[in-house]
Amino acid sequence: MPDNTWFNPYKLWSLKCLSSGPSQGIVFELDDKCVIKVPFQYPVGDGSTQQDQTDHLIMSLRSFQCFKQESRIYDLLRSNHSSPHPNILTRFKCKQTDCLVLEKIQPVREAWETSTDRVRAMWIMELLNVVCFLEDLGYLHGDMTIVNIGIDNDNHVKLFDFGSAVHYQDEDYQDQIRDDQFTLATCIYFLATGEDSFDQAETTASVKSIRKSLQQGTFDLAPAANKFRHLLQGCWSQKESWSFKELKLMVSEILGEQMMMEDDPKTTTTTQPPFPATTNQLPGSSVSTWVSLEQFPREEAWLNEEQYRIAWTKLGFDCSLYE
């Protein structure tokens, strides 16, 4: 059973932890503008039973892998593009290589409550924009969920958590396309309605039941999502072979009609188009800002991945089983 004996490369306990528990990594609040994301590891040999030890080993190795993949994605973005994509969470420059310093944003659940229909439509298109952008780079997000979507200070979508990103050359890429389209549909449903289709799921059995109802088209859609019915059911059924660009076009046509029917000067601006381009950097983006972590001492017990694997191998665990 995973517990709270994990630790990070730095002693960050004076900071507010924003993570509910160990997942891909642990996030701490640095200030009102940025957060730090770090991998975690359980002490070598930690666990009262062999199963606990195995669980701790698997979670720690997974954290190493996710951190490397997310860093790889940000390095790719930096090397291939002169300006960051406006809907990908900004990474700030930092001398330390075993952490990510990222912009702090508002969870989309909180932002949704005070948003308008026009803004929600813009968010849906922004999400599709960034998914298509990743597809052009040869990647799928791999973990498209509501909790991995936020809203920045300029009221735009920011996608984050790229530790599960899947490359087109990976064996599971084709299967992941269907999974990503399923979860993308769930995110679109939330942005359109404010309802998480899995909110009522409290057990594994209830998650499976809701998923089955989505796949079979028996899920009771909220009225605000009816205009997306064909698209949602196609993605949830996982029987369609749409590309993400085709999904974007379908949604653009749906929302384009909605925009033309709306005539609300309170939500219409002349400076921000309803469907922003995918390559322009948003005003105020601070990707070049350096962040110093010198005030945080390193954790003496921290091991790099190679050291960690060697230490567990000496205890009789075969780390190669958990790649």
Structural class: alpha+beta
Order of helices and strands: EEEHEEEHHEEEEHHHHH
Tell me the strand percentage band: 5-15%
Q: Could you tell me the number of beta strands?
A: 10
Mean pLDDT: 87
Looking at CATH, which topology of the largest domain would you report? Answer: Transferase(Phosphotransferase), domain 1
Largest sheet: number of strands, sense, barrel closure: 5 strands, antiparallel
In whole angstroms, the N-to-C terminal distance is 20 Å
Description:
With 323 residues, this protein is an alpha+beta fold. It has two domains: 1-104 and 293-322, 2-Layer Sandwich (Phosphorylase Kinase, domain 1), CATH 3.30.200; 105-263, Orthogonal Bundle (Transferase(Phosphotransferase), domain 1), CATH 1.10.510.10. It is 40% helix and 9% strand. It has helices at residues 50-80, 108-112, 117-137, 173-193, 204-216, 229-237, 244-261, 305-314; strands at residues 16-17, 26-29, 34-38, 91-92, 100-103, 106-107, 139-140, 149-151, 157-159, 166-167. Strands 1-2-3-5-4 form a five-stranded antiparallel sheet, covered by helices on one side. It has a three-stranded antiparallel sheet with strand order 6-8-9. A two-stranded antiparallel sheet has the order 7-10. Strand 8 and strand 9 form a beta hairpin. Helix 3 packs antiparallel against helix 4 (173-193) and helix 4 (173-193) packs antiparallel against helix 6. The longest helix has 31 residues, at 50-80. Mean pLDDT is 87; it is low at 263-288.
